Amino acid sequence: MTAEIMTAAEANMNKGLDNLKEAFAGVRTGRANPMMLDKIKVDYYGVPTPINQMAAVKTPDAHMLVIEPWDKSVLRGIEAAILASDLGITPSNDGAVIRLPIPALTEERRKEMVKDCKTYAEEARVAVRNARRDANAKIDRLKKDSEISEDDARRAEEQVQKLTDKFVASVDEMLKKKEAEVMEI
């Protein structure tokens, strides 16, 4: 029974880490990364569609993204969606492709992004702790219902805590790497 609880807790903690990876992927560093565009949706015949599903996104160099839509009629829509997003990049449309020059980040903007990263990391830690709380609640319920002994319950809670510590350490490590990446010039 406790094995099922541990498996569920680990799965929930992994979801928190996956969400953190996704959030970090959207944080813009000083170099071009096609994943920056993942959250931007373009109205394509009445359906909000991600850019990467309607165009080829290329990185010819570290400071440029080139978006080449398969249907040229959607160029203006992609351009408008990028302008409306919070990327802070002005696209240049030449009628065939859209170029996104990625400007170097200012020190102030880097610090803002690090703050955002810390917020994402804290959300991931909270998700991990919530998984711990849920697992401990299930263990307590089993103990109250006399389905497991107090010793087994204590051991299970210790295992849950070790798992929590491991995942929180992973979150901290990911944050440290992302911080270094964002602050790198």
UniProtKB/TrEMBL annotation:
It is found in: Cytoplasm. One of its GO terms (biological process) is translational termination. One of its GO terms (molecular function) is ribosomal large subunit binding. Residues 125-173 form a coiled coil. Keywords: Coiled coil, Cytoplasm, Protein biosynthesis. The keyword Cytoplasm applies. It comes from the Bacteria. Residues 20-183 form the Ribosome recycling factor domain. One of its GO terms (cellular component) is cytoplasm. Signal peptide: none annotated. The keyword Mitochondrion does not apply. Belongs to the RRF family. Responsible for the release of ribosomes from messenger RNA at the termination of protein biosynthesis. May increase the efficiency of translation by recycling ribosomes from one round of translation to another. This is Ribosome-recycling factor.
